[in-house]
Design a protein that fits this description.
Structural class: mainly alpha
Number of strands: 0
Largest sheet: none
Shape: globular
Order of helices and strands: HHHHHHHHHHHHH
Radius of gyration: 24 Å
């Protein structure tokens, strides 16, 4: 398939044939290799999360020391966030393979693919509730349905002129870079408006708040403490009308309540999953489902769809199938992705790991942005390699 317009829905197709598995001679072997590589990375990441509460996802386990700390840090640096994005890329590739195969044999694609995604969605929910509440198969299924709508939308008369793999690639890459650009723009505006005196004042306040928060967290939690009381978090307070001291006290109160609530959730989940019955664990996972489903649309829009677009291009353009003819492209991806990704991953983790980042929200945001960007860069590097 060349880098040309994908045939619209009403394009004449040959007589229908059976839409069965692709013959071995027609398989894109490098895709099978990439799937295996991606699954190894996902296993390495999930091994840790199988033994930690979902409340702690994406955070350092600060209790680790020695070789355990080293292993955990290296997993975060080289694995976390990289391999599920590589797997999402393969999902977009697989979508293109199935779509082009359906067009080749003259079979309807939309209804067939929708049934597959609905089955995947149900399977993901079953796995989430009955086995592990870190499962994201339902996200891929929802993303697949949204991507199908994208394909059909670009077959309409109004958008048909943009219906080609190269345009999809451009849209996908810009889409992927948009969050990092917005974060960088916000950081630039904040830095321009904040001089050194303001930074020093904010840092002094951050340290004072951190000390008091640590002191309060070290105290025993009162027996009648209401962990579910959200009044302090949600009350409508016009902080502009508060004095500096009142704002600091409000921040301390909210931080302490948030930390206590997170610790309680983590300890409760650990107790249920390690000491409770299977029924109790299932009920707990079921209680997590509404929150997980609420996170599906933003994850689909911000992460999955743009990655699907890039994966679609690799197949529809013929680049992956004839990868030996595009050695320069993949070599560039490997060198640039691995070098830039390693640097930003290490830099982001060092910032987030430093105690100063626990008290400075701006430092934590910088470290998080670098680490987020490194996930895409290393994923591209792994693919190129």
């Amino acid at each position: 398939m060349t880098d040309s317009t994908i045939p619209p829905a009403d394009t004449p197709v040959p007589e229908q044939q059976s839409l069965g598995p692709i013959a071995a001679a027609k398989r894109i072997e490098v895709m099978d290799i990439l799937r295996g590589f991606a699954l190894i990375g996902i296993v390495l990441m999930n091994i840790e999360w199988f033994s930690r509460s979902s409340t702690e996802l994406g955070s350092f386990d600060r209790s680790l020391t020695g070789i355990d700390h080293a292993a955990g840090w290296l997993i975060r640096c080289f694995v976390e966030g990289k391999f599920y994005k590589l797997f999402a890329l393969l999902f977009g590739m697989g979508f293109a393979v199935m779509l082009l195969r359906a067009q080749e044999v003259g079979r309807p694609f939309g209804a067939w693919f929708t049934r597959r995604m609905l089955a995947l969605f149900v399977f993901g929910l079953i796995h989430f509730v009955f086995i592990w509440n870190g499962d994201i198969l339902h996200d891929y299924a929802f993303g697949g349905l949204m991507f199908l709508l994208w394909i059909y939308a670009f077959r309409t008369r109004r958008l048909q002129r943009f219906n080609n793999p190269r345009t999809f690639l451009k849209i996908g890459l810009v889409w992927l870079l948009l969050p990092a650009f917005v974060a960088s723009l916000a950081g630039m505006v904040y830095s321009v408006r904040t001089d050194n005196t303001d930074f020093e004042a904010a840092w002094k306040t951050d340290q004072e708040v951190a000390v008091i928060v640590d002191e309060q967290l070290a105290e025993p939690v009162p027996e009648d403490y209401d962990f579910d009381d959200d009044a302090t978090d949600e009350e409508d307070v016009d902080e502009a009308e508060l004095s500096d001291e009142e704002r600091k006290e409000l921040r301390i109160e909210r931080t302490v309540r948030s930390e206590r609530r997170s610790d309680k959730k983590a300890s409760d989940e650990t107790a249920i999953l390690s000491e409770g019955s299977y029924l109790e664990a299932t009920k707990h996972r079921l209680s997590k489902l509404p929150q997980a489903l609420g996170q599906t649309p933003p994850m689909t829009i911000l992460i999955l769809i743009p990655i699907f677009l890039v994966g679609y291009w690799f197949i529809a353009s013929g680049v992956l199938k004839s990868h030996r003819e595009h050695h320069t492209l993949f070599r560039s991806m490997a060198w640039i992705g691995l070098t830039a990704g390693f640097s930003t991953s290490v830099g982001g983790l060092l910032i987030m790991q430093h105690p100063a980042a626990q008290t400075s929200r701006s430092l934590l945001a910088v470290g998080g942005t670098l680490f987020f960007l490194s996930q895409y860069l290393l994923s591209a590097g792994y693919l190129g390699m």
